[in-house]
Amino acid sequence: MPLVPSKELVQAADAGKYAVGAFNAVNMESAQAIFAAAEQERSPLIIQVTQTTMDYTNPDELVALIKVLADRATIPVALHLDHGRSFDLVMRFLKLGMTSVMIDGSLDEKGKNPRSLEENLAVTKQVVAAAHALGVTVEAELGRLGQIGEQISADDRDHALTDPDEAASFVAETGVDMLAVAIGTTHGLFKGTPVIVHDRLEKINQKVSVPLVMHGGTGVPDEAVTKAVKLGICKVNIDTEIRVAFYNSVHNTISKLEKGYQEADASGEVRKYDIRNILGPAREAMKDAIAAKMRLFGSSGKA
Ligand code: G3H
Ligand code: ZN
Description:
Elements: H1 6-16, E1 20-24, H2 28-41, E2 45-50, H3 53-56, H4 59-72, E3 77-84, H5 87-95, E4 100-103, H6 117-133, E5 137-142, H7 154-160, H8 164-174, E6 178-181, H9 198-207, E7 212-214, H10 222-230, E8 233-238, H11 240-266, H12 275-297
Parallel strand pairs: 1-2, 1-8, 2-3, 3-4, 4-5, 5-6, 6-7, 7-8
Helix pairs in contact: 2-4, 2-12, 5-6, 8-9, 11-12
The structure holds glyceraldehyde-3-phosphate (G3H) and zinc ion.
């Protein structure tokens, strides 16, 4: 199937009161696992890559692989840039054929320090003008999410949360198609107990006309996710949970292989090494973790 703008998928989710999962791909096995889960669950899909991918591999290569998988897919797929931090970088990924991009103007280009509202507005408007000319969906972010390993203190929490009125004027002024909101989630594993501020989400949803996005989906309790979807979340980003599934599977497989190798050594047999014996089960484990999220978000059977 040809790739679609994610706007189509999140608007259908908004109307159907479910959410579409957005899953990060970093290599062949993770991309294959994401597509396999969507096919199994008959679920619409947003597959996303980040600019940090560029430090690991040439994005052209990973995107080319994803396009081949999308061509063969029988479910609708959007190809999304996650956490684009500058206009230039977003343009580079637009050129690669993204059908959806995020300009994260809430933090500076290094993703370290908050940008001012004015700076966020300016860079977001620039990206919307270019992306919309190509029919590409734009996601932006307003408010401050905890970064990996960071826990926003109770004192700071209120200040970090997205303000409903500011969100409404931000969306009206920029023309973005979906808005990532700060409602208590954090990137990576939570330090301490996650506190999702659902009443804030409800207020934002009452004032903002576009679908809302939850980042930092890993570790959010199932019932908190289900409630957030009912209150207007139409896209949920999941990354760390896929990495954990990969790590645990590789760890188990290597422990088993180690035992086998010791027996082989003891009996004088030659050890047999095969990367596929490690990455194959890891791909399956990632697929199972992703499929479970699709069922939780309610997107299973919606393709
Ligand atoms: O943009 C990606 C996500 O926000 C991933 O968050 O690693 O906590 O699942 P996560
Ligand atoms: Zn994120």
